[in-house]
Queue: 3 jobs
Job 1
Amino acid sequence: MAQERGPDFIEALSRGLDVLSSFSAARPSASLSEVAQATGLARPTARRILLTLSELGYVRASDGVYSLTPRVLDLGTAYVGSLGLWDLARPHMEDLVAQTHESSSMAQLDGSDILYVARVAVHKLIALRVEIGTRFPALRTSQGKVLLAGLPPAAVRAALEVPSRSTVPALPVPPDDELAELLAHVREQGWASADEELAAGVRSVAVPVHDASGRVLATMNVTVHAAETSMDTLLNHHLPLLRRAAEGLEADWARRARLPIEAAPQGSAR
């Protein structure tokens, strides 16, 4: 059933965003026909949108094949930069990575997916490629469980009803009672883990990052290779360090919030 749109909904803008979203790591370039098929748009409509995006500098064309330009990064980094969160998170994440020798990421919820907004990585062979902008189905990840646990029950169901845009298949949503029990347990213990639920060989543990009011802003995690790191090490060694890093970030964020607006540092994702 088609989603109801408000009276101020701009269909042309929605279609333009659909065209941008049709490109991915799995499809970095596409012909006009492929874009039209991926978005469900008529070819003339897809063509006009692609030409507009090309004039604006977000798309380039070569021999009838379209691809994104680096300018699209401005759309994502503007969001991260507007929070100022990355500048504050980076030293805490770097310290965490130095102590654990494992990669650490931050994510936020986008519908039924988590979206990576910051990352400090170590060079290890792991089953999934992760970078800023990567999205995974929330229920398959430790970060997603923490983010969902931070929502009111009605908002959880609404989020999970949004179709996933990840290339990784989403899991069926558990019955309401099972889901409520899972998220209540995550809230009570203050962390969540995922043991090869996202991909074989990938384990992770995540904790929430709160703002001064107690609202969950984002999550921070540690990801390990299952063949190298046991769940015991992940939970008994890495998790306390992860919690300390998140608490340090929360303290910095609270201090930033107390600054006068004109004196607050300008966030940047660079």
Job 2
Amino acid sequence: MTNNSTKKQKMAFPVGLIVVILAAIGLVTVIVAGVKGIDMAIDKSRRYEEYEKILTPVVLIDPDSFDDVTKAQMSQLMEISIWSLLKNDNAPDNFESNENGLAIPKSAVEAEFTELFGTEVTPVHGTIEGYGIDFVYDNVSETYTVPLTGVTPIYTPNVVDVSKTTDTVVLTVACIAGNAWEQSENGEMVAPSPDKYIRVTLRENENNLFISAIQNTTAPETATTQYNANNNKLEDVNVLDDETTTESTTKAPETTEAASESTTEKESTTVKEESSTK
């Protein structure tokens, strides 16, 4: 009996050791998988934030929809390009100022235009009567003058779905009214429900993505958007594909400097072509 018991004890030790090793391997695998999952979630969140940063000056003026960028209203594309420059935190330092506001060179607007809308359309310069503000163009100095006041955006973007193909990225975007945010009793900003949804198609051009279409759409059937008062976030629960967010956030709109006082309605946008000769 003693010999048999000793043999069993000797056999039990390596078997137990194997179990411990396998358990440790399993634990490491779970930890690694968890870390990778967190990294993927963070990376996805960053991509969504990058998309929203691109779209912020776009939905700010709520442009007309277009199926192809070549059919878009030129004045609105120009206005978006200028707003995109103004949304840069360093805008006041990047451009000269005078008694009338910032002076933005034609070349800077053209570069931003190409970055946003590609090379299939050519920018046309002229004074822009846009959303609550005029961007006055001077043919002599070839600059746009932008008054240094403030405006509340018509909408702020909240990307709720991303779909990719070989050379396109299609974004489903919830448009949050800029003037509909409310403040809770504890002082936090409460996001309203989206006013509408748009589908923005990005196409590839020389390894860069540009906006090629903006179309009205409906809320994704597999996604619901609701406000979580505990963490001040809009949470979107989706089960579409690996690019679909499980949590997307949007920030309360900040008053944009270098614009006029806020308005509650979108003002018509036109471009006045100025004479190239004195």
Job 3
Amino acid sequence: MERLQRLGRIVSKSASEVKESRLGIGFEKLDRDVFDPNKAYDKVARIGVKKVRIQSGWMKCEKEKGVYDFAWLDRIVGELLSRGLEPWLCLCYGNPLYTPLAQKVYGAVGCPPVQSEEEMSAWLSYVEATVKHFYGRITLFEIWNEPDCAYSWKHFFGEERDLMQNAYEYGVFARDTARVIRAVAPEAKICAFASVGVGDLAFINRALSTGLGEVIDYASYHCYSPFDMDRVRTIRNFRDILDLYNPKIGIIQGESGAQSDSRGSGAMAHFAWNRDKQTKLMLRMLLQDLYAGVEFTSYFSTMDMIEALNGRVGERASYLDYGYFGVISADFDEDGRSTGEYSEKKSYFALSALASLFEGKAEAFRFPVAREYLPSIRVNGTDCTDNTVQDYTFRLDNGDTALVYWNAVPILTSTYEGTITYSVYGQDNECVRLVDLSTGEVYGIPEEMKNDQRNGGIRLRNLPLSDSPLMILFGKNTKIAEK
């Protein structure tokens, strides 16, 4: 960036200052009391995202058959709403009052109530009571979490797991749950799947074949992978399978994240993660989701916390498996609860900058862009010629347009610094700036790096190129805080 003129930084906004956003964040696992939300509410509000995913915790709400206590969840919902955030509720997990397996599983994680009519009837009664209690404050309800994973649909047939049988079971389970939600709150929005295997069209297709597609408004997916070259295509394949059943179903990305520490457990564990890599992958994933046209995309998660996906009751060591997905870091006490200062990571500030830029209904917007290959003194005498360069064009809610780009080298093993040249047509060439999305810093582009192509075209020569997303911003409407 040393050839550019630093102008300032993107002005961050808190959730209360943002009317609408296609960016959200996870605030999960409070049914298992894994972190102190009181230390996190203000910090998450200052990011500037709107949607906050929380989990309902059936076993925490119903400890005596037929008696529901939502006080703990009321406090969370109220604190989020008071800060301008919009909670949406994932209805999960099991309950040891009804499901024997749940008596052995920490937090009853992934114990679906599908073994008997009593279990299912109790679940539907719980869903009815929950939706009645929260509807108005919460309008979007999601049915279960990652049912295509063994940890989250702990139900096997014989010695082998029958994924297609699980898909059918989940389809019927979600269909019947959705019908109860619709009867209680006709205007509520209903979401199904929360599927990690978004590329597993067989599972999605089998579940939809139960009639599920007729009763939901959204389908959600989760995607944890250090490889992001096929992400947009995978989302479009998901769109195609949904269209076979109901083209009106919208798509939500409900969980995607990256670790910030190589010691982490859970998704993408045991890789060489650090805070820079977390930030880069977070930006790359969220930008691709936004471009692919999801309703909104949610980063996992607010906090570093235990994973506790396969914990066993009475065996503390089985759930002291720490995940470092948070944009806020924490220490851990002897029970695995997130403690300490709760300090913001680099990813926190990057997400805040992205949220400010993509406030409102910012969306994919095509305009003419041509990549060129010019001599460059920066790297090997020429601009980057790699076919791994990704670029996406957007219209921001304030009317400015943007070209976002990066070199998608393997994020765990490579970094990249080079240059790139673009010719762009039909945009506001009077005010062209470059934004480093990892920091929110804004730079002016020197005149010697710009060529007038006439008739509305401009060539931007030898711009910085990195494995972390950069944005070329066209227009005067995006406000920056001066130096």
